Amino acid sequence: QVQLQESGPGLVKPSQTLSLTCTVSGGSITTNEYYWNWIRQPPGKGLEWFGYISYSGGTRYSPSLKSRTSISRDTSKNQFTLQLSSVTPEDTAVYYCNALVVGRNYWGQGTQVTVSS
Question: How far apart are CA 31 and CA 78, in angstroms?
Answer without folding.
Answer: 11
